[in-house]
Design a protein that fits this description.
Blueprint lengths: L1 H30 L20 E31 L2 E12 L6 E15 L5 E29 L2 E30 L2 E27 L2 E4 L5 E21 L4 E12 L2 E13 L2 E27 L1
Antiparallel strand pairs: 1-2, 1-3, 1-11, 2-4, 3-4, 4-5, 5-6, 6-7, 6-8, 8-9, 9-11, 10-11
Length: about 300
């Protein structure tokens, strides 16, 4: 009888201990989730920066402008008359390569564009259109273009003199596709694309001289001036970085290297001069050409829409 009671007491004690153990496990499971339940998804980019959006911005830039590869070619062809009859003919021509110092200027800038992250990635793609007004001119004073030719079969030399040669760039635009990488509240990017620039060039106060029989002679008479302007295609490369102040506003800092294609412009004008009973008539013509290289550092404030 006592043995039977003792056995029942031991069984009851074991059951109570097992129940307490299971209760402890249940409480522990509620208080401390399993490791798999502790995983939290982390976005590849800071949610402060939007995943995609159109943007527009305004700012300013510091620009270093190099009017490079400048070349002027001039030539004169003429006949000499006396009493209405041609008594002599001549022609001469030659090039020169004027150089200009590098110019610098501050300029207002504007840009619009779009960016979008690749799905589930901190890499992104986009494109932007930028505009700057440079409005800067390089001037070469008293440019001399050496001439060599013949006059009635005899060799002679001379010079075409321009009081000044000016080159200018005003409007500059670029369309830049880019790729980038996000870092928390910012992303860096780089890209390249076509550019379009408005350039102007002018030759002012042009006169042709020839050294004939040891005499420095004005052949073309009164001075002429030539000017042209055009839109010139080129290319631009950009590297930049953004910083998002909040979900809608960000700063954009960028460096741009842009170059136009070489633009060549022709000029031509008739001339006439008289001396010692002779009349010299002919045509002064030629070309002037060059490219514009711009390096700029820009800062803008932009809004995402």
């Amino acid at each position: 009888m006592n043995g039977h009671v003792l056995s029942r007491q031991r069984s009851l004690s074991l059951a109570m201990r097992l129940a307490a153990a299971f209760a402890g496990l249940a409480v522990g499971a509620v208080a401390s989730p399993a490791p798999a339940q502790q995983l939290v998804y982390k976005a590849p980019y800071d949610p402060t920066a939007p995943a995609a959006g159109f943007f527009a911005g305004l700012g300013g830039s510091y620009n270093s402008v190099n009017f490079s590869n400048q070349n002027i070619f001039a030539q004169g062809v003429s006949n000499v008359y006396q009493g209405g009859a041609v008594v002599a003919s001549g022609a001469a021509g030659g090039p020169t390569d004027p150089s200009s110092s590098i110019q610098s200027t501050l300029a207002p800038t504007a840009q619009v564009g779009y960016f979008q992250h690749f799905p589930g990635s901190d890499w992104l793609w986009g494109a932007k259109f930028s505009y700057s007004y440079l409005g800067i001119t390089a001037t070469n004073q008293n440019v001399s273009v050496p001439q060599a030719g013949s006059f009635n079969g005899a060799a002679f030399t001379g010079h075409v003199i321009a009081r000044s040669y000016q080159t200018n760039i005003s409007h500059q635009m670029a369309f830049i596709p880019f790729v980038g990488h996000s870092f928390e509240r910012s992303f860096i990017y780089f890209g390249a694309g076509p550019s379009l620039s408005r350039t102007q060039s002018s030759l002012n106060g042009v006169i042709g001289f020839a050294d004939l029989n040891g005499v420095h002679t004005d052949i073309t008479g009164s001075a002429d001036s030539f000017a042209s302007s055009s839109w010139v295609f080129g290319g631009a490369a950009v590297i930049g970085a953004t910083y998002f102040l909040d979900r809608f506003w960000f700063l954009d800092f960028s460096y741009t290297y842009a170059s136009t294609l070489v633009q060549t412009t022709g000029f031509s004008a008739p001339f006439s001069s008289s001396s010692f009973g002779y009349t010299d008539t002919g045509t002064l013509s030629g070309t002037y050409s060059g490219r514009v290289i711009t390096q700029s550092v820009a800062l803008s404030i932009n809004r995402v829409f």
